[in-house]
Amino acid sequence: MYKDYKFIDCTEKYHSVMQFDKNKNVFVHRWYPFVEGYSKEFIEDILGELPFAPTCALEPFCGSGTTPVELQNHGIKCYSFEVSPFMHLLSTVKLGRKYNVDTFTYYVKAVTKKLSRTSRNIRKIESLPFGDTIVKKEQSKKWNFHDTAIDGILDVRHAIRTIVDNDDYKNLFTIALASIIIQASNMFRNGKCLSYKKGWETRIFSRKDIHNFFLDRLNSIFTEDIRIISKQNPSVQNSEICYLGDVRKNIQQVPDREVDLIITSPPYLNSRDYTDIYMLELKVLQLINSYEELRELRKNTLRSHVQVPYGKVFPIANERLKNSLLEMSNKELNTWNTDITNMICAYFEDMQFLFSEFAKKMHKGGVIYFNVANSAYYGVEVPVDYIIADIAESCGFKVREIRKARDLKTSPQQSDKIGKLRESVIVIDYQ
Ligand SMILES: C[S@@+](CC[C@H](N)C(=O)[O-])C[C@H]1O[C@@H](n2cnc3c(N)ncnc32)[C@H](O)[C@@H]1O
Predict the structure, then answer these.
(1) pLDDT digit string, tens, across residues 201-210
(2) What's the EC number here (predicted)?
(3) Ligand 1 near 73 CB (within 6 A)
(4) Does the pLDDT at position 412 exceed 80?
(5) What mean pLDDT comes out for the span 244-271?
(6) Coil, strand or helix: which one is 172?
(7) Is 352 a pocket residue for ligand 1 (Cβ < 6 Å)?
(8) More confident position, 267 or 140
(9) Whose CA is nearest to atom 7 of ligand 1?
(10) Are the C-beta atoms of 122 and 151 separated by less than 8 Å?
(11) Quick one: which of 22, 83, 231, 417 could link to 39 by a disulfide (CB 3.0–4.6 Å)?
């Protein structure tokens, strides 16, 4: 028999706060529009309901840094981990508080001047991002950037590299550049992948247009926010404890029994590969420079997608998981040991490992807020929230409740078999 958990419908409370969209005009969070994050209200809501004042938090899947940034704003120390060099750069820049208006203004003026006199052949001094689809080649049917757009981006990258001689500001300006890359490209983020914008062939930005996109960002929201940051003196600094790398390998950086709060949203079991969605940023900012580096990065990500082969993975001892796999094999032949079933097994193996580590890091009385969503494969809904609740209990935690946050759309392949997929927040105590 399955263990049952208290289940509460919190769709009214969580409906809008689970989307990063709410952050798009919010101080610092607005520096880069991230799609897969939750809003700062989610964090504030948790802090509002906690019966104790947390002293040390952990965010294993930092993403754009919403958790450590917002906790820092509330004076709470937070260890965080992020495997993607782009997301890690974004988070540490947002956590940085060493900026001041005068230095920022000095660099903006110097970069503006540099961009008013750019080199005719920028590609001789700034290399193109790696890959076959970046610009139009002889046989190309589609390409990510028109020539003038990528040259404008290379101008900006060159100006940052040669003018901004302080690493904090160099990284800050790099994030301002990152925030216009999609706008400058022929692509848009379309759920799990990048797709071509309608009419991309004829919408061509000049080099000057690109410089202006970048300078407009610096002169508007970045200037406004740096002015506020200059006057602040935060009591904690979470940037030095925001670690780059695979949390499964690096979590030992967190001292045992120090954590009293974990807030996180791991990659969902939905085959979404974050390296794909943020590929242009990774390439243009030269954070990934070859297919080997890309493969290495993918190998270090949580096993929630099928971009790298995992080999045969056996299911962890969990009845709900075994039943889901059985249902899949009853619905469709040959589902056993496919890339998908291996990914499903590997995902929960990773979760089990993480919860066993959380149990070492937390001290008694600590709480975990774990935001996940269910998935569907071969016409079967995998109850990810309930399986993770079981895993947490098997690692010594007590599940207080599962809160339904939202209904998410299923993929087009599953939509005729499965209606909507539940997104939840699992509240877990360590007693
Ligand atoms: C759903 S996002 C987190 C969003 C975050 N809560 C926010 O508001 O920005 C999940 C993140 O986990 C990262 N990730 C995936 N595998 C990881 C791993 N093994 N270690 C650390 N981070 C990982 C992804 O790169 C992605 O940025």
Answers:
(1) 999 999 999 9
(2) 2.1.1.113
(3) no
(4) no
(5) 97
(6) helix
(7) no
(8) 267
(9) 37
(10) yes
(11) 22
Atom of ligand 1 nearest to the CA of 39: 8
Among 57-71, 74-88, 221-235, 362-376, the range scoring the smallest mean pLDDT is 221-235
Is 145 close to ligand 1, i.e. is its CB under 6 Å away?
no
Q: Rg of the chain's alpha carbons, rounded to an integer? A: 23
- Residue 429, Cβ density class (10 Å: 0-12 exposed, 13-18 middle, ≥19 buried): middle
Atom of ligand 1 minimally distant from the CA of 34 = 9
Instruction: Kindly report which listed range (27-41, 171-185, 192-206, 365-379) carries the lowest average pLDDT score.
Output: 27-41
Amino acid making up residue 411: S
Phi/psi of residue 347, nearest 5 degrees: -60, -45
Rama region for 121: left / alpha / beta (φ>0; ψ in -120 to 50; rest): beta
CB of 61 sitting under 6 A from ligand 1 = yes
CATH 3.40.50.300 assigned to 7-85+238-271+306-430: no
Distance CA(350)–CA(195), nearest Å, equals 30
| Span 191-207, average pLDDT | 95
Give residue limits of the domains in the chain. 7-85+238-271+306-430, 101-231
pLDDT of 332 reads 78
Per the listing, tokens 């290379």 go with 154
Higher pLDDT, 272 or 197: 197
**100 is written with which tokens?**
């001041």
The secondary element (H helix, E strand) that includes residue 274 is: helix 274-277
pLDDT of residue 15: 82
Task: State if residue 279 touches ligand 1 by the CB under 6 angstroms criterion.
Answer: no
Nearest alpha carbon to residue 26 among 221, 304, 248: 221
The tokens describing 276, both together, are 């794909």
Residue 360, pLDDT > 90, answer yes
Ligand 1 pocket check: which of 82, 272, 299, 369 to mutate, most ligand atoms within 8 Å of Cβ? 82
- Pocket-testing residue among 20, 62, 349, ligand 1, by greatest number of atoms within 8 A of Cβ: 62
Question: How far does the centroid of ligand 1 lie from the alpha carbon of residue 148, in Å?
Answer: 33
Report the chain's mean pLDDT, rounded to a whole number: 94
Our mutation pick for probing the ligand 1 site, out of 19, 83, 92, 248, counting the most ligand atoms within 8 A of Cβ, is 83
Cβ neighbours of residue 289 under 8 Å, at least 6 residues apart? Answer: 130, 283
Q: Which of 297, 275, 245, 306 is nearest to 62 (CA)?
A: 245
| 36-40, 255-259, 394-398: the lowest-pLDDT one | 36-40
